[in-house]
Write a structure and sequence with these properties.
- This protein has helices at residues 2-14, 18-34, 41-68, 79-116.
- It is an all-alpha fold and 117 residues long.
- It has one domain.
- Helix 1 (2-14) runs antiparallel to helix 2 (18-34), helix 2 (18-34) packs antiparallel against helix 3 and helix 3 (41-68) packs antiparallel against helix 4.
C-alpha cells in the first residue's frame, strides 16, 4: 500500500493540473489511511477497491487530457512523463496485490477461528 501511495504522490507532484493533483492526493490519503485499518480487513478490502476505481478515473483523465487536446500536434514525451502516466496503473497493481494479501490473511484468521470453536 505504501508503494501505491508513492505512485499517486508521483502523479500529484508531477501534474500541472490542480484537479488531477487533488484526485492523486485523494489516492494517497486513501492508501495511507488504509494502512491504519490493519484490524479491519474487510474495510481494507473495500477501501482498496475504491482506490482502484480512483486510479482508473485518474488514468482515464490523464490520457484524455494528454491525447484529447493535442490531436493535431506531434509531441515528444520525456521518460518522466511516461512514468507519471503509468503510475496510476502501477498503483492498481499494488492495490490488487494488497487485496490478495488481505484475502489470504482473512482465510488464515477464519481457519484459526474454526479451531477455537
Amino acid at each position: 500500500m505504501a508503494l501505491g501511495a508513492m505512485m499517486f504522490f508521483l502523479v500529484g507532484t508531477g501534474n500541472p493540473s490542480n484537479a488531477q493533483a487533488l484526485l492523486a492526493g485523494l489516492g494517497v490519503a486513501l492508501f495511507l489511511a488504509n494502512t491504519t485499518y490493519f484490524k479491519h480487513r474487510k474495510r481494507q478490502f473495500v477501501v482498496n477497491r475504491v482506490v482502484i476505481l480512483t486510479a482508473f478515473v485518474l488514468e482515464g483523465w490523464m490520457l484524455y487530457s494528454a491525447n484529447g487536446f493535442s490531436a493535431g500536434k506531434e509531441q515528444e514525451g520525456s521518460p518522466l512523463e511516461f512514468l507519471a502516466m503509468a503510475a496510476p496503473l502501477m498503483a492498481v497493481i499494488f492495490a490488487a496485490l494488497a487485496n490478495r494479501a488481505i484475502q489470504s490473511d482473512e482465510k488464515k484468521v477464519q481457519s484459526a477461528d474454526r479451531f477455537r470453536k
